[in-house]
């Protein structure tokens, strides 16, 4: 790139040369168009700045216009620094943002002797390797020289890249046509600068006049078409498809085909202009039972079985609910049935009409909903009768009544309405004339009184009441003992067979009569003779031995059936010698002589003796302690020794706290009552108490029974 001072000098020199050529062209008639010089662009700011038939182009220069609005051929003239032949001048800036089309070079001036001027040459690239090529064609050859013969029209200059053929040179007077100028390349647009005018007329040469070559053209094949100077396939769309016609269809931009996904905002891009159910659609498709996005016909509004919004359905009468049946006839709305939803009925002289679906999803109610069958009754379960049956009449009333039957006796004027509502012979109203008039517990008609009773004889009675009391006509259990044939209930008490009516009907072992049943006892006094002085009579009226109180902490203290709950321990130095065990449960010796209880028998052998131990959980406090005892033969020695010990832990473990020993003293051969009654004080911190009873100094066998450890009482 040249320096700015050098470029300025060159530019001024060229502008001077252009001026000289312009003057020469004016003298020799180079400008054919009287409106505007095609080789010398005219600057403008508005259309008013240009002559008639021209408008102000976007490049700030006047251009020919057929419609008075836009340029016919938007070819710009050369940019700044264009040469006289259209090529880029030395002064042209090389850093322009884009290249404009350069104007063709002006015709060379006619030669002075033979009239042959040299035409302008073309530049195909505008002189610089910039984004856009020049497109203007060169102008024709120069005019004839002075006194030369008239020249012929020279051919147009060759096209530059994207340019058009320039016009031929005009005839010079007396001279021959100079060679045609070739296309000049486009000049470069300088941002913010002004455009230089095209190259001026060259001075006439002395050589023979040249002919300008024509502009080049682009020829496409039969399967192609021209697009901005380039051949493309016929099925392609020139420049691509955008906006509302985004799809290229065989060379034509069209909208999206039906079935393409869309939104309301992009509906204009659909070929149909309609977006329904999220796709381009052939119709607006707003019916309740139609859709445009079905899998089988996407893009075509079609009937469907899926409603657009749920059809109305009464939850209590779903048979009336609407559906989309997929037919064209019902595509716009849900199809509702008009079938019966509640059956009609007739009950107690009132007919209720059936209810029908109302065609809107609900079970309709007729108006009126029901009617009275009066004066008649229901003919069946759904409708009213239209008259009385044979042998019946309304008798002036509101319903049909039988004539000469139980409901109406003889005539309409003799209506039986009391409890004696049946008609007997002679038109008398009675309760019954046969068993058919009776029911329930009084299913028999006593014809002597025309009344309904329970029984007439024993054939009507059974089970626990097999006898008919003919006086009261009721079924009873018995009238006397002879009616009671069961061995378990041989006595007639009132009208019922029972086991006993008093103690006289009972015997041992169930000598007492309680609620017509023989039982062992009705009080404790019935038991003491057999079960001892402390025996009791249970709530089920059975005798039992005297029971320990609930406060006695010891388990099985009376040894009812064994000495379970106690731990036996034989104190024998040589176990193989002792006749073990030395403690046994004795069922034949109870302190109260109760036949269903026993006691513990301790045996003595040389220095060995038996004992029983039991440990109970117990807190600190005062306790009553005692037991009953006897021995096989009298002696002066102590018979029994019981030791009561307190421990801090449970299970008689942990720290030993204290203990007391209770000696029985000499014993007799019969049960002492009472035997030992004393107390034991368990100290603070007690968690459990151990009771240990054993044979003591006596050499005879010893028995122990009814032991107690009780904080609130005794045994």
Can you offer a commentary on this structure?
This protein has 715 residues and is mainly beta. Among the domains are: 1-41 and 77-217, no CATH class; 567-710, Galactose-binding domain-like (Jelly Rolls). The protein is flat and about 170 Å long. The two termini are 138 Å apart. Mean pLDDT is 75; it is low at 1-39 and 75-215.
Shape: flat
Oligomer designation: single chain
Average pLDDT reading: 75
- Percent helix, as a range, is under 10%
Radius of gyration: 70 Å
Number of helices: 2
Unreliable spans are: 1-39, 75-215
Distance between the termini: 138 Å
SS elements, strand count: 42
Largest sheet: 6 strands, antiparallel
Structural class estimated from helices and strands: mainly beta
* β-strand amount: 15-25%
Short overview:
Helices cover 4% and strands 22% of the residues. The protein has 715 residues and is mostly beta strands. Strands 32, 35, 36, 38, 39 and 41 form a 6-stranded antiparallel sheet that branches.
Helices, strands, pairings?
Elements: H1 4-27, E1 54-56, E2 62-64, E3 98-99, E4 188-189, E5 224-227, E6 230-233, E7 247-249, E8 252-254, E9 275-276, E10 279-280, E11 290-291, E12 302-303, E13 340-342, E14 345-347, E15 350-352, E16 355-356, E17 370-372, E18 392-393, E19 401-402, E20 422-424, E21 428-430, E22 444-446, E23 451-453, E24 467-469, E25 474-476, E26 491-493, E27 496-498, E28 512-514, E29 517-519, H2 528-531, E30 536-537, E31 543-544, E32 567-571, E33 583-586, E34 599-602, E35 604-605, E36 608-617, E37 621-631, E38 640-647, E39 656-663, E40 676-682, E41 688-695, E42 702-710
Antiparallel strand pairs: 1-2, 3-4, 5-6, 7-8, 9-10, 11-12, 13-16, 14-15, 15-17, 18-19, 20-21, 22-23, 24-25, 26-27, 28-29, 30-31, 32-36, 33-34, 34-42, 35-36, 36-41, 37-40, 37-42, 38-39, 38-41
């Amino acid at each position: 790139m040249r320096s700015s001072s050098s470029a300025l000098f060159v530019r001024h020199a060229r502008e001077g040369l252009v001026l000289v050529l312009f003057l020469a062209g004016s003298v020799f008639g180079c400008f054919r168009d009287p409106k505007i010089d095609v080789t010398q662009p005219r600057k403008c700011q508005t259309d008013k700045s240009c002559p008639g038939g021209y408008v102000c182009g976007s490049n700030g220069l006047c251009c020919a216009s057929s419609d008075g609005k836009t340029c016919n051929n938007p070819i710009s003239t050369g940019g700044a620094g264009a040469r006289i032949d259209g090529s880029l001048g030395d002064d042209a800036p090389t850093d322009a943002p884009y290249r404009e089309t350069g104007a063709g070079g002006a015709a060379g001036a006619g030669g002075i002797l033979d009239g042959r001027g040299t035409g302008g040459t073309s530049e195909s690239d505008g002189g610089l390797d910039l984004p856009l090529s020049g497109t203007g064609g060169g102008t024709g050859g120069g005019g004839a020289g002075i006194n030369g013969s008239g020249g012929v029209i020279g051919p147009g200059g060759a096209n530059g890249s994207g340019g058009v053929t320039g016009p031929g040179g005009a005839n010079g007077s007396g001279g021959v046509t100079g060679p045609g100028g070739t296309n000049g390349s486009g000049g470069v647009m300088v941002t913010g600068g002004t455009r230089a005018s095209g190259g001026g007329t060259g001075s006439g040469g002395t050589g023979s006049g040249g002919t300008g070559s024509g502009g080049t053209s682009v020829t496409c094949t039969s399967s192609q078409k021209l697009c901005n100077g380039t051949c493309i396939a016929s099925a392609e769309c020139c420049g691509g498809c955008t906006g509302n016609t985004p799809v290229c269809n065989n060379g034509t931009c069209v909208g999206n085909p039906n079935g393409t996904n869309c939104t309301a905002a992009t509906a204009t891009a659909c070929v149909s202009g309609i977006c329904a159910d999220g796709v381009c659609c052939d119709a607006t498709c707003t019916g309740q039972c139609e859709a445009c996005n079905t899998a089988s016909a996407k893009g075509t509004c079609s009937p469907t079985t899926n409603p657009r919004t749920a059809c109305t359905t009464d939850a209590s009468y779903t048979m009336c609910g609407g559906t989309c049946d997929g037919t064209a006839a019902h595509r716009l709305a849900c199809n509702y049935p008009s079938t019966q939803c509640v059956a009609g009925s007739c009950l107690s002289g009132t007919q209720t009409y059936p209810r029908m679906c109302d065609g809107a999803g609900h079970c309709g109610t007729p108006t009126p909903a029901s009617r009275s069958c009066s004066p008649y009754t229901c003919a069946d379960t759904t409708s009213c009768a239209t008259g009385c049956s044979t042998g019946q009449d309304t008798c002036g009333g509101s319903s049909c009544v039988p004539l000469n039957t139980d409901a109406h006796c003889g005539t309409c004027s003799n209506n039986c309405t009391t409890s004696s509502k049946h008609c007997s012979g002679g038109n008398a109203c009675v309760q019954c004339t046969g068993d058919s008039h009776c029911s329930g517990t009084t299913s028999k008609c006593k014809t002597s009184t025309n009344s309904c009773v329970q029984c007439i004889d024993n054939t009507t009675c059974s089970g626990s009441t097999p006898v008919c009391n003919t006086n009261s006509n009721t079924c009873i259990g018995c009238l006397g003992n002879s009616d009671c044939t069961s061995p378990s209930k041989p006595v007639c008490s009132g009208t019922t067979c029972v086991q006993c009516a008093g103690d006289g009907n009972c015997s041992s072992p169930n000598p007492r009569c309680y609620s017509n049943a023989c039982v062992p006892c009705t009080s404790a006094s019935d038991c003491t003779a057999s079960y001892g002085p402390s025996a009791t009579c249970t709530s089920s009226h059975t005798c039992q031995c005297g029971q320990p109180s609930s406060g006695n902490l010891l388990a099985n203290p009376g040894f009812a059936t064994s000495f379970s709950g106690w731990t036996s321990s034989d104190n024998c130095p040589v176990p193989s010698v002792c006749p073990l065990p030395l403690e046994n449960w004795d069922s034949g010796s109870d302190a109260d002589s109760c036949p269903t209880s026993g006691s513990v028998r301790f045996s003595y052998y040389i220095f060995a003796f038996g004992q029983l131990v039991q440990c109970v959980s117990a807190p600190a406090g005062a306790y009553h302690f005692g037991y009953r005892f006897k021995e096989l033969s009298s002696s002066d020695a102590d018979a029994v020794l019981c030791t009561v010990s307190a421990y801090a832990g449970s299970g008689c473990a942990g720290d030993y706290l204290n203990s007391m020993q209770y000696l029985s003293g000499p014993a007799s051969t019969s049960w002492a009552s009472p035997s030992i009654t004393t107390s034991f004080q368990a100290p603070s911190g007690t968690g459990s108490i151990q009771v240990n009873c054993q044979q003591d100094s006596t050499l005879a066998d010893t028995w122990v029974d009814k032991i107690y450890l009780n904080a609130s009482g005794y045994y």
